[in-house]
């Protein structure tokens, strides 16, 4: 789950729905937040005892930890597939048990919210919530186990044990995640996810994507023109700029987040990375000038060069531009996003249409500049011109202005 941004527009977390003038749908069709008792009683989930989950995870041993987030640690465990009783290690069904950290960013309210949504929603691209535990001070959630982990690990972890995702797998993952968001935004559901990011996109054994962590989800507005007023929550870099500025929540906020993650998938870079050169720390500001000039090959992850067609890369680049539009009205809806990605799946690249796997430092233009300018044989002014020319050719200096907004560092 994401953590709360320090700029809070509303002190009250309860959403206020503002209608744009359309007809309100029957409230019975919505997933309205109800009381805690109603949520727990109406959910089709198993109510586990703390003792059972303690046994299933081998007393929450450190070597059973799968990961850790704002909610707390996630442990690997085993239960019987039919009775859901604790099972011996490496027998029965593998599960992931999320245990609430009382000192973490998220708390009991997010725990209930997750049960409210995942206890009712079922879709191939949403993670399956099996049950929960509420006993004394203990708050736990039990999910299906996702053996491939998160998209974040595959994109950003540089290790000999993690093979880089191929272009085809990346497109399969983003399509699956897009279908999950499209389901949430559908007229009968109308849920705003509010925390779309690589760490919340989990992968099964076949690299099918499933959205997880619904602690920040909210019911959307009743019509297409309205919005929900709530305090700003999410993860720095992924929240839409207009949402951070006003606290007005709409499905278009999720689409901005989708565009950010899609850009991360193309580049293999984090949206914010302090370890990079100053001009490349903000991924959106660095990449958008190249995308607008249709020079998408200059920002693509070098680990997938030669695997995609120029047409496919440009199509995805244009989709990123649309999703990251400063004006939310110009962003596509998720049905349109899914349609674009599905068309790419059907297009098979021709051999001559593939970008060659050539290292970036071997672009001919760079070599010509280095040969034309020899700083050792020039005065100070000419040496400076030489350096500027080289920087421009390498993409280090962006000439065109960048009008795409990004969110300032406002995490608490």
From TrEMBL:
Keyword check for Hydrolase: no
Record carries keyword Ribosomal protein: no
Gene Ontology molecular-function annotations: ATP binding; protein serine/threonine kinase activity
This protein's UniProt keywords: ATP-binding, Kinase, Nucleotide-binding, Serine/threonine-protein kinase, Transferase
Residue ranges occupied by any Protein kinase domain in the UniProt entry: 60-344
Pfam families: Pkinase
Protein residues bound to ATP: 98
Catalytic activity reported: L-seryl-[protein] + ATP = O-phospho-L-seryl-[protein] + ADP + H(+); L-threonyl-[protein] + ATP = O-phospho-L-threonyl-[protein] + ADP + H(+)
The EC number(s) this enzyme carries: 2.7.11.1
SUPFAM superfamilies named in the record: Protein kinase-like (PK-like)
Family assignment from sequence similarity: Belongs to the protein kinase superfamily.
Descriptive protein name: non-specific serine/threonine protein kinase
Lineage per the UniProt record: Eukaryota, Viridiplantae, Streptophyta, Embryophyta, Tracheophyta
């Amino acid at each position: 789950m994401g953590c709360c941004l320090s700029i809070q527009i509303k002190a009250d977390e309860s959403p206020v729905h503002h209608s744009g003038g359309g007809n309100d749908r029957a409230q019975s069709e919505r997933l309205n937040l109800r009381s805690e008792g109603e949520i727990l009683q109406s959910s089709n989930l198993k109510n586990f005892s703390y003792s059972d989950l303690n046994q299933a995870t081998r007393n929450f041993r450190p070597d059973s930890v799968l990961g850790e987030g704002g909610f707390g640690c996630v442990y690997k465990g085993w239960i019987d597939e039919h009775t859901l009783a604790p099972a011996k290690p490496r027998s029965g069904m593998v599960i992931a048990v999320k245990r609430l950290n009382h000192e973490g960013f998220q708390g009991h309210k997010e725990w209930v919210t997750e049960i409210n949504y995942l206890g009712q929603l079922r879709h191939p691209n949403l993670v399956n919530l099996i049950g929960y535990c509420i006993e004394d001070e203990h708050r736990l959630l039990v999910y299906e186990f996702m053996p491939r982990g998160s998209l974040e690990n595959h994109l950003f972890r540089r290790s000999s044990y993690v093979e880089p995702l191929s272009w085809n797998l990346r497109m399969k993952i983003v399509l699956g995640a897009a279908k999950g968001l499209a389901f949430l935004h559908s007229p009968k559901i109308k849920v705003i996810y509010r925390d779309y990011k690589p760490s919340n996109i989990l992968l099964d054994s076949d690299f099918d994507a499933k959205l997880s962590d619904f602690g920040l989800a909210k019911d959307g507005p009743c019509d297409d023109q309205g919005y929900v007023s709530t305090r700003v929550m999410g993860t720095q870099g992924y929240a839409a700029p207009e949402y951070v500025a006003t606290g007005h929540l709409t499905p278009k906020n999720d689409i901005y987040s989708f565009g950010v993650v899609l850009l991360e998938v193309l580049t293999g870079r984090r949206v914010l990375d302090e370890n990079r050169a100053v001009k490349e720390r903000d991924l959106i500001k660095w990449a958008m000038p190249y995308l607008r000039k249709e020079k998408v090959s200059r920002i693509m992850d070098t680990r997938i060069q030669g695997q995609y067609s120029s047409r496919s890369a440009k199509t995805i680049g244009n989709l990123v531009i649309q999703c990251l539009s400063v004006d939310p009205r110009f962003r596509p809806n998720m049905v349109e996003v899914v349609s674009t990605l599905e068309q790419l799946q059907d297009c098979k690249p021709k051999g001559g249409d593939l970008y060659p796997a050539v290292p970036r430092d071997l672009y001919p233009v760079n070599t010509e500049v280095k040969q034309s300018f020899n700083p050792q044989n020039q005065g100070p002014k000419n040496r400076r011109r030489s350096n500027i020319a080289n920087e421009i050719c390498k993409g280090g200096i962006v000439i065109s202005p960048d009008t795409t907004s990004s969110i300032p560092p406002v995490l608490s």
